[in-house]
Amino acid sequence: MAIVSRGFFGRRGEGDVKLPPGQYLTHDFPVLSAGPTPRIGLDRWEFTIDTELGETHRWSWADLMALPSETPTLDLHCVTKWSKLGTGWQGVSLDVLMEDVETAAEYALAYSYGGYTTNLPLEDLLDGKAWVAYKYDGDDLTPPHGGPARLLVPHLYLWKSAKWVRGIRLMNEDWPGFWETAGYHNYGDPWLEQRYQGD
Amino acid sequence: MSIDYLDGNALAGPLGELFAVDLTVAVGTCAGCGNSGPVAGLRVYGPAPGLVGRCAGCEEVMVRLVRTPDAVWLDLRGTLSLRIPMPDDQQGG
């Protein structure tokens, strides 16, 4: 009799999927919130990138829609230990938004409608690693999930994927964001289980 | 629109882990708008990734509390003051 069951290793498509340490698989899409859900009309929505030299690059909703988009399929890992795999999105790569932005900054601070902030190294936003996403599963992104548009940085814990994203500030110095100043890890790599400061 | 927060009594347990007095009856003054009221009257979001208590007047963050495996992080920078009711120390002699 086999002493190691198939279930120990799991099955592809469900249990055979390798999850980051300490995570469990979920099929629903939990909503975690640190404040009231902002409702932003598309007519007043804008996204900006501010550089360390004081230059501002600005996109309206129509500007964003006019940019080439991608439809990545992404695995999401929340610091509260759920992971959701194979989620379908549509959005604009940060590589496209950064194309005409001249910067030597090493750090980025994403900020949101509602006041949320989160920090990360600029290089984590580039080279196909991050998007400003506006459709989930083929539909417009709903406000509870960050609509009309949210940042997606799926290789880091999901708190780095700022909902209701309004802009990104590029800086020479690292500036810890909302959860990073309250005990959570400054970088947040799920595969290294960097949940809290000191991990 | 559904209400997506709890009242400040949701802070009683986590704060009770830290303080000998019941802080939910303390009167907090918001550093954002100056509004004063009992901590129990805050709008509390969470509990995960952390508890976020917001002013019922202006919705600014007054308190954040994160429980990590080995610590509690408490941020009160949005609270200008806390008036904590205490028994009259003259009565004790």
TrEMBL record, chain A:
InterPro entries listed in its UniProt record: OxRdtase_Mopterin-bd_dom, OxRdtase_Mopterin-bd_sf
Start and end residues of each Oxidoreductase molybdopterin-binding domain: 35-179
A Pfam family it matches: Oxidored_molyb
Gene3D superfamilies referenced in this protein's UniProt entry, alphabetically: Oxidoreductase, molybdopterin-binding domain
Transmembrane segments: none
Record's protein name: Molybdopterin-binding protein
Species in which this protein is naturally found: Acrocarpospora corrugata
Lineage: Bacteria, Bacillati, Actinomycetota, Actinomycetes, Streptosporangiales
From TrEMBL, chain B:
InterPro entries on file: DUF6510
Protein name: Uncharacterized protein
Pfam families (alphabetical): DUF6510 (PF20120)
